[in-house]
Amino acid sequence: MIHGALLVAYDTTLNAKNSKKILGIQKWKNHSGNADKGEYITGHHLGVLGIIGSFLSQKFLCFPLLFRLISGKSNPCQFVSDTDGKTRPMSFWDNAHATLFQFAKWASKHTVRVVVDAYFSNKSFIQPLLDRKNPIHMITKLKCNTIGYLDPETPKIKKQGRPRKRGKKGKNI
Predict the structure, then answer these.
(1) What CA–CA distances, in Å, run from 84 to 47, 80, 81, 87, 91?
(2) Domain count, the chain
(3) What residues of the chain score a pLDDT lower than 70?
(4) Contact 140, 120 (CB under 8 A)
(5) What confidence score (pLDDT) does residue 99 get?
(6) Phi and psi (nearest 5°) for 13?
(7) Domain-located, residue 159
(8) Residue 110 — φ and ψ, nearest 5°?
């Protein structure tokens, strides 16, 4: 427990494989920035969730707890169904949410906070975490192109046209 909540970290990793006959193998874009590995990697893409704890005075350690295969579009092996019963292949975000929701279910009595990198600072990742009955709070670095808006002010006199969706731009530091 750190500041009254369980703190977890979530990130993804690419594991290169030589065989193309293994389940879940496909071509993934390499975002590592290492030119020696090439532009693409053939292998598994895994989502990893670890719990962060404070040990030995001020040292923090992350212990991996959950690994989930991200199957991708060309070789789907995981599916999700909506309330109408229609199934579709699990997306990257569905995999991330499934891992976090599974951990939150295990830690049902405690508040959960997740630490992620700037790649995860978008609405498709954040909104389902906040829409839950017991929301999962996120700690992240915002992308450099992020724009924040305040809530729109309701006009005293109703004007013609559609009401504003956004308020004034907020300044991101």
Answers:
(1) 28, 11, 8, 9, 18
(2) 1
(3) 1-3, 20, 23-24, 31-37, 56-57, 72-77, 171-173
(4) yes
(5) 85
(6) -140, 150
(7) no
(8) -115, 155
Structural domain boundaries enclosing 62: 5-146
Question: Does any domain span residue 13?
Answer: yes
Element (H, E) at 79: strand 79-81
Taking each helix axis as running N to C, give the angle between helix 92-106 and helix 123-130, from 0 to 180 degrees, rounded to the nearest 10.
30
Determine the Cα–Cα distance for residues 31 and 18; give it in Å rounded to an integer: 19
Q: Is residue 39 part of a domain?
A: yes
The torsion angle over the Cα atoms of residues 123, 128, 134 and 140, rounded to 10 degrees, is -40
Structure tokens at 153: 């002010």
Task: For the chain, state the CA radius of gyration.
Answer: 20
Within 8 A by CB and 6+ apart from 93, the residues are 124, 125, 128
Q: Is residue 162 part of a domain?
A: no
How far is it, in rounded angstroms, from Cα 9 to Cα 63? Answer: 9
Question: What does the pLDDT read at residue 92?
Answer: 79
Residues β-bridged to residue 15: 44
Residue matched to tokens 């630490």: 115
Q: What local confidence, expressed as pLDDT, does residue 39 receive?
A: 72
